[in-house]
Write a structure and sequence with these properties.
Length: 273
């Protein structure tokens, strides 16, 4: 599975790293291997010859499914209810999640190669170094926060004795899951973009790119492809102004529309320091 990534400066030295929307994921049904009950989870986990990493993935998928169902229940609650207010609080908390974490979570274990699109005015090797830096920094940060979140789970679970929804517990549980996924995405991205430079591809011409891509797919010798885009470079230079002011919202929306990006995630990069 190949993922298409977009990399471009959005404000000064602040770069945007994002993945294009994969519409096939929304149409893919939930895997039948994902346990739906505690009994199913225990049955799958206690298999002796199953690797520890696979058991951890089953547990994480089980927790994620439970959180998704609970979130849907909050979202569909009547206006003015306690559940609806908790949903609003959850949206506010989610808006504070850093865009780099969202990007790293989008790099799933199913991805076998990445195509990186960047402005033609940027140096290809600089783009790859920045990607590797994001992956390396993410693996360090999210490993630290993952263990920190795990340590808070017993403390917040003790709040369940109160006659109120245990929001801190579910938030810490979500953050644990989120940091775990970001950590896995960091390690996967680092593995992909750290491939030997001899097997990398840097392409500028569209027709030439398609020819080389088909050849590389036949030989399966490349995990990442760098493709410069003059169109993206022209979009970045639509307005003349101070680079520290960043791109205008109009330009950001136009880039998101052309390259099929999540607008909310891209705007977060503009607001982040």
């Amino acid at each position: 599975m190949r993922a298409k990534l977009l990399v471009f400066p959005i404000r000064g030295r602040n770069w945007c790293f994002t993945r294009t929307i994969d519409h096939s994921l929304s149409a893919t049904p939930v895997s039948s291997q994902s346990p739906s009950t505690l009994r199913d989870l225990w049955t799958n986990v206690k298999v002796a010859d199953k690797p520890l990493n696979a058991k951890a993935e089953l547990f994480v998928d089980f927790i994620a499914n439970k959180m998704n169902k609970a979130w849907i229940g909050l979202e569909t609650a009547p206006d003015g209810s306690v559940k609806k207010k908790i949903h609003g609080l959850g949206l506010w908390l989610l808006s504070r999640v850093k865009p780099s974490e969202i990007f790293l979570k989008s790099i799933s274990k199913e991805i076998t190669s990445v195509e990186v699109i960047y402005p033609s005015s940027l140096n290809a090797e600089l783009v790859r170094r920045r990607l590797r830096h994001v992956a390396m920094r993410g693996s360090i940060i999210h490993r630290k926060y993952f263990y920190g979140s795990v340590s808070l789970i017993p403390l917040t679970s003790a709040l369940s004795i109160l006659p109120l929804p245990n929001v801190p517990f579910f938030w810490v549980l979500f953050r644990t899951y989120s940091h775990w996924r970001a950590l896995q995405g960091s390690e996967k991205l680092l593995q992909l973009v750290s491939n030997s430079s001899k097997t990398s591809k840097t392409r500028t011409d569209k027709k030439e790119a398609e020819d080389k891509e088909s050849k590389s797919q036949n030989h399966n010798d490349s995990h990442w492809v760098l493709r410069s885009s003059k169109e993206l470079d022209n979009l970045l230079h639509l307005e003349d102004g101070d680079e520290h002011e960043g791109l205008s919202k109009f330009t950001i929306l136009k880039i998101c529309k052309i390259y099929d990006l999540n607008t909310t995630d891209v705007i977060k990069y503009d607001k982040s320091s």
